[in-house]
Amino acid sequence: MVKAETWFNRGGVWAVLLARFVPIMRSLISFPAGLLKMNRVIFGLVTFIGSVIWCLLLIYVGYQAGALWQTSARQTEALLNILTVYALLVLSAFYIVYYLVSKSPKSAFVNKA
24, 38, 53, 105: which could join 33 in a potential S-S bond, CB 3.0 to 4.6 Å? Predict the structure, then answer.
């Protein structure tokens, strides 16, 4: 515990800052910071900085991908329409077979000796 506390006091600021960019660690880094009694003001400041940078990065990527999204949506629309038709045909066939099997007399499927 002493080694972890020494390490966290020495590099905890960087650990918190970098953890804000890693999906699961983003939420879990608060536990070691609290257990090892990291300064709340420093933790809040580093969390704020890391979160702002992460959000700005996501906003930038989303803005850049906006035009690509419209292009790819138009290109895949025809494919999705075809896949939808085939899926409905397959589901309809399964329903028809199920209906015919469930309504047929049971004796027709029994092997007579």
Answer: 38
104, HSE (Cβ side, Cα atoms, 13 Å): 11
Structure tokens at 16: 């918190």
Q: Which of 70, 6, 67 is nearest to 38 (CA)?
A: 6
* Cα separation, 1 vs 9, whole angstroms: 12
Exposed/middle/buried for residue 102 (C-beta within 10 Å: 0-12, 13-18, 19+): exposed
Q: What is the pLDDT of residues 49-58, one digit of tens each?
A: 999 999 999 9
- For the chain, the domain total comes to 1
Burial class (CB in 10 A: 0-12, 13-18, 19+), 73: exposed
pTM over 0.70, yes/no:
no
Largest Cα span, the chain: 86
In-domain check, residue 86: yes
